[in-house]
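Need residues for this backbone.
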């Protein structure tokens, strides 16, 4: 049962060489380096479930997982041969990822520059990867084809692949390496056929969504109809890139009066206003200093990023 607007890949927060199709839900890469993309909806509380269909893997496959929006250097991960999910927190921000192939026997996981094997086998064409993120319990599970890795049990909170995840706002993330046949299709609840490639699963979260496999009890589709009534963020940080194609800053709703490092933001000049935050378009060091942590203050905030609001912003 589909309802509301579902998460997609954010077209303003991705590598130029990460090609998106099917309404920004399918990705493939056109260059031989790591190319990244990030989800359009944030997760700061609640329990969330999504799936990824592996259409083709020519090179290293993909990293899929979550990245914390506060303090993360997402632009550095758009186009970089060494910047994949799960790299050094100090350099790239806090991210947690599963990897389609750790070795010939198992998939893998990564965080803060280190990782290890999952208990599920490496990915291949036609596999469906599963992600369950408990923002309240600070835990992440990864599965494949309806088997959770490491005897995971998201419904009961047991055996996550990562726990004690720092609080904050996280978004879905993907990294692909290679220029041929690396293609993956995400489903946050809008289409369990992945664009007509397989038969429909017809599994909802109890109210919304259409998944191939049943979400663990208590876990929801990432859509505006499920988003909690939280206040729009009044403060956050981002890492500047010194470019007019600057970072996307997630606020969870429409920005009001915004400053960056105490400098007043003029929308259309320094940033573009979005329904869930803003996109920096200034290369000025006052607003987008390369490599520096920039502090955002948002007062007189607008409407939350909910279904009704998303139709008009």
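Answer:
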């Amino acid at each position: 049962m589909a309802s509301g607007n579902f998460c997609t890949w954010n077209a303003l927060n991705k590598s130029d060489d990460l090609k998106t199709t099917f309404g920004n839900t399918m990705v493939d890469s056109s260059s031989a380096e790591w190319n990244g993309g990030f989800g359009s909806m944030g997760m700061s509380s609640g329990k969330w479930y999504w799936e990824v269909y592996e259409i083709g893997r020519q090179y290293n496959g993909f990293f899929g997982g979550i990245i914390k929006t506060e303090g993360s250097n997402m632009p550095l991960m758009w186009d970089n041969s060494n910047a994949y999910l799960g790299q050094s927190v100090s350099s790239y921000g806090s991210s947690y990822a599963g990897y389609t192939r750790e070795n010939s026997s198992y998939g893998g996981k990564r965080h803060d520059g280190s990782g290890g094997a999952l208990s599920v086998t490496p990915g291949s064409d036609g596999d469906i990867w599963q992600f369950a993120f408990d923002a309240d319990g600070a835990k992440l599970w990864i599965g494949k084809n309806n088997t959770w890795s490491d005897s995971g049990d998201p419904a009961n909170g047991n055996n996550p692949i990562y726990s004690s995840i720092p609080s904050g706002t996280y978004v879905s993330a993907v990294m692909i390496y290679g220029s041929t046949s690396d293609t993956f299709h995400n489903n946050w609840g809008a289409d369990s056929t992945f664009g007509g490639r397989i038969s429909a699963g017809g599994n909802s979260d109890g109210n919304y969504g259409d998944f191939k496999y049943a979400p663990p009890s208590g876990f929801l589709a990432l859509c505006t109809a499920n988003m909690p009534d939280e206040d729009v963020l009044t403060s956050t940080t981002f890492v500047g890139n010194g470019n007019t194609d600057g970072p996307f800053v997630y606020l969870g709703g429409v920005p009001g009066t915004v400053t960056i490092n105490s400098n007043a933001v003029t929308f259309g000049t320094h940033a573009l206003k979005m329904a869930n935050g803003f996109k920096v378009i200034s290369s000025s060091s006052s607003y987008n200093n390369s490599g520096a942590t920039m502090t955002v203050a948002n007062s007189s905030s607008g409407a939350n990023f909910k279904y009704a609001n998303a139709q008009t912003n």
